[in-house]
TrEMBL record:
Organism for this UniProt entry: Nesterenkonia xinjiangensis
Extent of the signal sequence: none
Swiss-Prot/TrEMBL cofactor(s): Mg(2+)
Protein name: ATP-dependent 6-phosphofructokinase
Gene symbol of the encoding locus: pfkA
Keyword Phosphoprotein among UniProt keywords: no
Amino acid sequence: MRIGLLTSGGDCPGLNAVIRSAVLHGIKSYGDEFVGFRSGWRGLIEGDYMELSRQDVRGLAREGGTILGTSRTHPYNHPKGGPENIRKAMRRHDIDAVIAIGGEGTLAGARRLAVDGIPVVGVPKTIDNDLKATDYTFGFDTAISIATDAMDRLRTTGESHHRCMVAEVMGRHVGWIALHSGMAAGAHAILIPEQKVSLDQINEWVEQVHSRGRSPLVVVAEGFIPEGAEEAVAGKGQEADGRPRLGGIGEWLTHQIEERTGIETRNTTLGHIQRGGNPTGYDRVLATRFGIKALDLVHEQAWGHMASLRGTEIVKVDLAEALDGLKEVPLPRYEEAKILFGR
């Protein structure tokens, strides 16, 4: 078979490991040929691709980002998109199947194409870990490691100056990054989109810690909405797709805490640092296993399905199951972390 791979949506560490394992498995086990579409769905639609040989993917597992490039092009919104045009493009370039590696938007497009008869399978990717039907996605562990390291550094400078430190991390709709990195760093308050918390409660936690001679650490997801507010802080304009560009809740909280408690407070926004760099060992292994499974799904002709982690096993799941809403932080998980807030 001649198989095309694409990476779409936000980048994250581990994408190259998927590409490497799928290509090596396909060549060694099935005698397949591979191409990589540049810039996600755009490359497939416009026929912009590169040949992928064993030499091309050598050593890729340890490299962050994606050698194919990415974009937020939607397969149905592009002027030359849609199933009929994509089918013609695949025939023109002798492509038998497509492996789409991406998050919710990418996989939603892949499922829609599969329903319309395009031979496509998916690989779940997101640092936010917000996709259902898989226990974890690659990129998440790396983001947690980066955020935790940054918070450890914030705590030492905070302790030196007896300041409250606020760390803003990614998380538009879910707070998995904030929850895991905050717990790992020993945060005294963790604020996530799923749970509204009042400023009075936040300040109480901060004052409790400061009264013991410690430097409070507050971790907040960018999509956190304080109790009494209607929407997340979006002071960064708009994304290309029209969504508000979130960011600024950390700075807003810093002013509120300092003004209401009198405690000197500083904030840091980690931003895209969480997406960059080389993947952790865990993410390299998970991404590699996903790539191998995706290639097997192609040869099973399991169109409209994706690789998934269930426990320690990599299994096949229907894309419809993965796209049935976002995987939010359940209340018991937040209550578990909340035991250690403040006092």
